[in-house]
Design brief:
With 205 residues, the protein is an all-alpha fold. It contains nine helices and no strands. The chain has two domains: 46 residues; 150 residues, no CATH class. The longest helix has 25 residues.
Length: 205
């Protein structure tokens, strides 16, 4: 057990491999940055002005919510749901692997890993409560800040939009793709607010 631990630690400080000292330093800097960011963000989202704005905006949308609207935005929000994203992510990875576009594949993997880990850690650090159950269309158990759906929508569908734009010709075609991608990302973010499962600052954060 101890020899394996020593071997593991030795590899973490290997100067000649990226997975050694460079990755160790990068990970340490990332965690320090994440902790600092979480501390600053916690102070912001818990300020009286932000809390009041979040509460008023959430109640405003709750008054406007209709059964039809809730059903529509529930479908939209699930475009960034865990099951959908896993299916789309795996399908995209297989497609990129088949086309041997490894740079895009590695980028996709990094996007998923970075987004999911960052959201998970920040949620734990800040541990912000969700909007009250009377407003929420359905109950979520994780922390409220930041919105995981919004973050993964921005990251994944942003990547897909960028990939398509890089592989098509024509300014108009690219404009259409960027517009559609932006609308989808916006609607997913707005769906979290409309359904009452996130505050405004969760989505914008």
């Amino acid at each position: 057990m101890i020899p394996r631990l020593l071997l593991f630690l030795r590899k973490r400080f290997d100067k000649d491999a990226f997975t050694g000292l460079p990755l160790t330093i990068f990970s340490a800097v990332f965690l320090i940055f994440l902790g600092t960011f979480a501390g600053i963000t916690d102070a912001i989202v818990n300020s009286l002005a932000i809390v009041k704005l979040d509460d008023n905006f959430e109640r405003f949308l709750y008054v406007l919510r209709t059964p039809l609207g809730a059903n529509i935005f529930y479908v939209i929000t699930n475009f960034a749901g865990q099951t959908t994203i896993i299916i789309l992510g795996v399908a995209t990875a297989i497609y990129l692997l088949f086309r041997k576009e490894f740079l895009y594949l590695y980028t996709l993997m990094l996007i998923f890993a970075g987004t999911e880990s960052s959201v998970y850690l920040i949620k734990i650090m800040i541990n912000r409560p969700r909007p009250i159950a009377d407003i929420a269309y359905y109950i979520e158990s994780s922390g409220s800040f930041p919105s995981g759906h919004s973050a993964i929508a921005m990251a994944f569908f942003g990547f897909i939009t960028y990939y398509i734009v890089r592989h098509i010709t024509g300014k108009n075609n690219r404009t259409i793709v960027v517009t559609l991608g932006s609308i989808l990302i916006f609607l997913i973010g707005f769906s979290r607010l409309y359904l009452g499962v996130h505050f405004l600052s969760d989505v914008l954060g």
